[in-house]
């Protein structure tokens, strides 16, 4: 076959060639450009071409070799494109992937539950700033100047020094003060929020946690009212069988003050490792608002009395779900959070 015809034939083979897989293309490459390939053989025959035709044939052969190489490259490209295309195209007949639903955080669940219980009793919700000043966190709440809570060891200061240092609130009792400042009497509020203390992190303590504060001020509010409010709350939260007991305690802002325990909802008073064998679990601090606090906030303590209480949301949540390590609440491990998926 004349060299020209051979070139034509190779070109038409190239144009008609279809590849469905990489191997087809590799076979074409070997067939054309391999050691015994058709194009390679043409280069061998080049020797026999008459000298005056060498230039023209040389150019034609080089053009042929380039055309073969380009065709191989473009076949490879289109094969890669179609592979990528089919990978990203949707198979509409495939069953859908299960979507993982998020769950509410146990602290949010508990906070909402506490709020909804007190709302039923007629309390409204008040909030205040997390960055506070000494007056709202300590001064107006009857903390003496030398009280250890005012120390760097216990409180995170934002701007220490001066008459009224700026700090991160260590309790939500500061919202009591802000409420007394601006709300007309009578007052019946709960104040949920985040608080900060300079504590080493352990299974039982964290430097950030959450509290709900309660405050009720009116004429003739008595300690009996306080007890009844706490009892009703405890029974709503931990079940109708729940009992409470009050132990005398001390807080600068209440007088008298008490700590409240609920009967252990695990062993029902028999004693277990959750209640450390006592049958009781401590849930909050409370007391009658100290007249000094009322007066510091412009309320006539001869006419008005009130009670206050404060509880840790983490503590209530730990008791409710028997979580033994406080740190679980802050690590956001999905395996832990998933356990609350079914809690509405
Ligand atoms: N503020 C207290 C604390 O953080 C909790 C508390 C105790 C609040 C007694 C009160 C109360 O309102 O009466 O430990």
Characterise this structure:
With 344 residues, the protein is α+β, with helices and mostly antiparallel strands. It folds into two domains: 3-86, no CATH class; 106-340, BirA Bifunctional Protein, domain 2. The protein has twelve helices and ten strands. The strands form two sheets. It has a seven-stranded mixed sheet, with helices on both faces. The longest helix is centred in the N-terminal third of the chain and has 38 residues, at 51-88. It is elongated. The termini are far apart. The model has no long low-confidence stretch (mean pLDDT 91). The site of 3,4-dihydroxyphenylalanine has 11 residues, from strand 9 and strand 10.
In short:
With about 350 residues, this protein is of the alpha+beta class.
Question: Would you spell out the secondary-structure blueprint of this structure?
Answer:
Layout: H1 3-16, H2 22-33, H3 38-45, H4 51-88, H5 106-120, E1 124-125, E2 131-133, H6 134-137, E3 157-159, E4 166-168, H7 173-182, E5 187-196, E6 208-218, H8 223-238, E7 244-251, E8 254-263, E9 280-289, H9 291-296, E10 305-312, H10 313-321, H11 328-331, H12 334-337
Parallel strand pairs: 1-5
Antiparallel strand pairs: 2-4, 3-4, 5-6, 6-10, 7-8, 8-9, 9-10
This protein binds 3,4-dihydroxyphenylalanine.
């Amino acid at each position: 076959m004349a060299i020209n015809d051979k070139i034509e034939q190779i070109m038409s083979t190239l144009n008609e060639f279809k590849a469905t897989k990489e191997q087809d293309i590799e076979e074409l490459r070997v067939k054309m450009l391999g050691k015994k390939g058709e194009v390679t053989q043409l280069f061998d025959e080049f020797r026999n071409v008459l000298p005056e035709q060498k230039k023209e044939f040389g150019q034609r052969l080089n053009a042929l070799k380039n055309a073969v190489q380009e065709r191989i490259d473009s076949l490879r490209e289109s094969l890669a494109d179609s592979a990528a295309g089919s990978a990203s195209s949707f198979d509409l007949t495939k069953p859908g992937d299960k979507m993982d639903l998020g769950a509410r955080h146990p602290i949010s669940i508990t906070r909402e539950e506490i709020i909804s219980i007190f709302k039923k009793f007629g309390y409204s919700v008040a909030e205040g700033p997390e960055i506070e000043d000494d007056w709202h966190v300590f001064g107006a709440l009857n903390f003496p100047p030398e009280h250890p809570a005012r120390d760097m060891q216990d409180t995170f200061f934002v701007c220490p020094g001066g008459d009224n240092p700026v700090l991160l609130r260590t309790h939500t009792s500061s919202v009591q003060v802000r409420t007394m400042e601006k709300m007309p009497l009578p007052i019946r509020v709960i104040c949920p929020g985040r608080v900060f203390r300079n504590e080493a992190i352990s299974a039982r303590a964290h430097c950030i946690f959450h509290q709900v504060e309660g405050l009720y001020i009116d004429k003739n509010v008595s300690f009996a009212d306080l007890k009844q409010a706490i009892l009703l709350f405890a029974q709503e939260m931990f079940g109708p069988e729940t009992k409470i007991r009050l132990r005398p305690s001390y807080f600068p802002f209440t007088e008298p003050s008490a700590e409240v325990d609920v009967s252990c909802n695990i062993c029902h008073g028999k004693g277990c490792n959750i209640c450390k064998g006592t049958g009781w679990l401590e849930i909050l601090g409370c007391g009658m608002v100290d007249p000094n606090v009322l007066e510091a906030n412009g309320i006539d303590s001869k006419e008005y009395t009130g009670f206050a209480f404060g509880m840790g949301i983490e503590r209530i949540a730990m008791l409710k779900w028997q979580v033994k390590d406080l740190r679980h609440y802050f690590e956001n491990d999905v395996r832990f959070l998933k356990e609350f998926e079914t809690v509405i």
